[in-house]
Fold these 4 entries.
Entry 1:
Amino acid sequence: MRLIDEKEAINMKEKLQALRAEALTQVEQAETLNDLQQVRVSYLGKKGPITEVLRGMGQLSAEERPVLGELANKVRGEIAEELDRKKQALETAALNEQLKTETIDVTLPGRPVQVGGSHLLSDIVTEIEDLFIGMGFEVREGPEVETDYYNFEALNLPKGHPARDMQDSFYITEDLLLRTHTSPVQARTMGEYKGNKPVKMICPGKVYRRDTDDATHSHQFTQIEGLYVDKNVRMSDLKGVLNQFAKQFFGEEREIRLRPSFFPFTEPSVEMDISCKVCQGKGCSVCKQTGWIEILGGGMVHPSVLEMAGYDPNIYSGFAFGMGPERIAMLKYGVDDIRHFYTNDIRFLQQYHQV
């Protein structure tokens, strides 16, 4: 490779100085940010003249190479610095011009801001949770995609049990399904404690059943179940807890009654009614002339359920209950269609919150 002589090296230096002066002039003349970007690309880009000069440095002598390299870096730095200064000046000028043309009329009325509120159903669940927390219950949660074992078998519903037909299910696999009730949380909690300590809990959450949606049914709804397991728990304890719930939630004047019923995981089982708020128990169209409205089911935990969870049914006993917050909200606020809770109609929501 031929080395450049001293005269050619001087020409390269002079060319760099000329490029510097030329670039600075174009920077000063640039009127827009786009013009400035064109200058940056033209002089500092990979195909620019400064880069072209630097490609010839390999032909310089060992003494000239660092001298020209230092000069090239200085020229590039000065051009880049001037480009940044000009860019800032153009941006400031553009902002000032925008501020002059875009005035704000502070006398115009402001736009109202709509503030959302919690959903009626969420408020009902929270109110019920607070009520039972006040009675010493803890709140537990569990998975919505549940195993067949916890959803059915651990609750005294073995495979092939006819009571499974009461809860037509959404199966994902042969062993996985969308839970049909929140009772699996109770089974999981008792299994976690392994029969070594009492359980006093409620478990709110979504549940799913294959049902035709209408005014009183939905394929997805909310459920809150309660469980109390300890030594010497009796049916009278269940009645006392439910009576306290009814009076605090629906009003001190409400009365309750328990009717015999059937659930596979409780024995004996009961349905609970409250006296009708509309007619005060005298009979009307709301309570179908009975004076009573059914709101939940419960009973004493079946010994088989206790045993499968690791509790000795000869030592421990317990009660369980389950309620639907949608039904309770419908009774408390006179909502006539369960679908109102899920269609998100702002007109319905505005009746309970300023949204």
Entry 2:
Amino acid sequence: MITVEDLYKVYHQGKREVRALDGVSLTVPSGSVHGIIGHSGAGKSTLVRCLTMLDRPTSGTIEINGVNLTSARSNALRKARRRIGLVFQQANLFDSRTIADNVGYPLELIGVGRAERLRKVDELLGLVGLGDSGAAYPAQLSGGMRQRVGIARALASDPDVLLCDEPTSALDPRTTDEILELISSLRGRDGLAVLVITHEMHVVKSICDSVSLLDGGRIVESGRLTDVVRRLDGRLSQALLGIPPHVDESVVDGVLVDVLSTGEHATRPVVAHTSSEVGAPLNIVGGSVEHLAGTTFSHLRIAVPSGTDPQRVIDSLLSQGADARLTSDLADPTGTEDLA
């Protein structure tokens, strides 16, 4: 488990004070995948450096399975860091070493014997689907295969936490999905807690159980994926259930209303029923359907014509179990797909 409490990181640039992290608190239970998402400059890189204690926080605490990294020193801190596996955007392999030697390198550093090291390397290469590639060199592998090696290396010390920093941003879509499937499969490995730093909503949709939005060094939204998506007026919900194409409200004769239906309600003709109830045509001008964490979500944008009370439309939709709001009242109603 990862537990972060009231974490601050303050930099001083001359007389100017920059709060890169401003009271960040989060918990990632063992056996789960948590996503941290945000714009460039939101504080994601600083959070990574602090979680690994490569950059010491100004204040606050970081605990890995109850061990306080922020108060640990020298040998105790080195031992605690071994409980964190790191996967980077680039695999950062040693070109002069074989794949097996790259994976076994962390075990060399802590003095694991050759026989045990070889056994562990074989196990890990099999786990990531590269059982026959141990004698190859990084230059002989594709980008996706190199990233698999990076994941195997990160697991070599049997960590309690796997920290993935933009693990798929340098990969093509098909390889991205393969790597995400592999990371997702690790959530049940010895109670591993996985934290994924990303700017890609596809990553969050594919593998995360929960997600936090980091903005200006603060976590402004956080929760289980199915909970944050249900907050129609939230930025994460708008990003996860964005509606293509973007609709310009100024060219619509009337007003726009966003409708969110969940689970069994997502398959019901709520718009058609409401249209009949209010006696006016309600045109669907955009929509998306997502299956997230085992739940179906339908997000529709409808045009309410001039002369029809939009509140009557909203009340009818609410009575059918949907959530409905005026589009103009929502955060980022343009359906942003990417928070980069």
Entry 3:
Amino acid sequence: MQKRLNELKIIAETKIKSAHDLNTLKELKVKFLGKKGELTSVLRGMGGLSPEERPQVGALANEIRNRLESLISSKTEELEEEKLEKQLREQTVDVTLPGLPLTVGAIHPLQAIWEQMEDIFIGMGFEVAEGPEVETDKYNFEMLNFLKEHPARDMQDSFYINPEILLRTHTSSVQPRTMLAKEGEVPVRIICPGKVYRRDSDDATHSHQFMQIEGLVVDRGVSMSELKGVLLTFIQKMFGKETEIRLRPSFFPFTEPSVEIDIYDPQKGWLEILGAGMVHPRVLEKSGYNPEHYTGFAFGTGIERIAMLKYGIDDIRHFYNNDLRFLRQFQSE
């Protein structure tokens, strides 16, 4: 058996030394040293040896195993170094080649307008409030004085999930949620930016999904003149100190009286920009505020509307087409 072990050693050493790649080396390790390898096969015959021969054969087998493992380890290191040197030779980097230009991104124009509007209102003491985009009919309509049979509901063709759940049609739904959470405490001074959804046909001025920012103030002695002052400050910070505004009578179910706000463009004349008004007494009452003690005002506008007026954009779809030619115009914004 010792003779067979020595012969196995010579054969294994020869093949290991002549291996040219790591895969072959792994196969040789399994072939000679694995659980079903040749060394193990030879040692299975130790049962037929005499008690005097077994220690000698066992010692020789361990010596051969250690020798082959050491040889395989050295050969592995050698082959890995050769592989690395080959990769370095084949993947030489030419440091004289010019580098690739880095593309610098920019904030999306709608996000930029959103953040600018938030900064303006936060500077006037407003807080940012948020609410769910999947809303209940209660908060989207009923708490805002849209009764079930109210014709004003037809103004906002909605995406209903079931008779009581829909995608919100305005961020005004955040207003009653906030007032109820405050449990009658004042002041309430919030803005509510976010996405809204209506079943509009997409064209240059309409989209089934767009963004709004709404504002709400509730306190003692809040007046229409304060509403005008807040909106004039916002518009002049957004469009310039010389921007003129006018208020026109309008109608919204959740405000009374209601107004439309226009800004004056020297080239295009008066342009509608947002709607506003004094919070309807029913809305205050439903949200836990006594309308005989508290008054408030609310306003709302589309973020796309502001961006289109500020940048002179004539088609709302440009914001959502991901056209880099359009978006690159705002890299400095």
Entry 4:
Amino acid sequence: MTQKIAVIRGDGIGPEIMDATLHVLDALQVGLEYDFVDAGVSAMDKHGELLPAATMDAIRSHRVALKSPLTTPVGEGFSSINVELRKRFDLYANVRPAISFPNTKARYSGIDIITVRENTEGAYGSEGQTLSPDGEQAQSLIRISRRGSERIVRYAFDLARRIGRRKVTVVHKANIMKSTSGLFLRVAREVAAQYPDIECNEMIVDNACMQLVMKPEQFDVIVTTNLFGDIISDLCAGLVGGLGLAPGANIGTEAAIFEAVHGSAPDIAGKGVANPCALLLAAAQMLDHLGKVDDAKRLRAAIVATLEARDNLTPDLGGEGTTMSFARAIASRV
């Protein structure tokens, strides 16, 4: 059975890494059909808007999108196109795995951590942002809800149970932010009590960051609020070699968008040297989401085998390959 997905080729290096990713997906023969739609600067150039209605309709219709990095123009439009997409489709769960791969520049080995980040509220909300007329004071409202906290913590525990993880760490700052982070922690405790088969521990965010650097092997699944999750997930990417190996899934009840979490890297766009691994790993998350778990395993195994063989690795991984030659090497192993 064919599954149609929306494909956003993106800006900067986006089209290059998307072409490479689709080449590998085609080699997997997983029955995907692509509906190419525009967003970001490329959409502005073609359609006069950053998020055309046709793009929104395609995501809504297919319920799944694979997205390359987008550039948000400075001084106009949304504060972030990615934040706007999450808001419009209520993509409340941001899932960021950080897994050690061979032959990278990572300082650690054996890392396997999943950060589950609340994606729609908290410090990234646009409510209450003001700047005083004299430019001397700024403020912003942080809003945390019981509903938002409950569904993200439950998502983390359900994910842990589904994939056989044994521990969830709830990261918070309830010792200082007693209302907002305090509510999140209280709700997390209520949810955790319903999962007696999964160990739950709590960690203040500053200590969690220190512990991730000192002893990352103690972590399994992390669940936290929006701002903390944004910071921690990038920290975890640093443990395994950087954002070039960092995929992300944005999950809601009506749609899901899978992406490389790094930027559009305009400085290397068109040079054919961008590492496609982050988007390929996001595609593996997408296959898991679509129930094609065995195909996702094949894709990840092919990436590992290619890294082990040092076959056509891109320059950031110490090789002399191109974006597409690296993709072809991975495709040959699926």
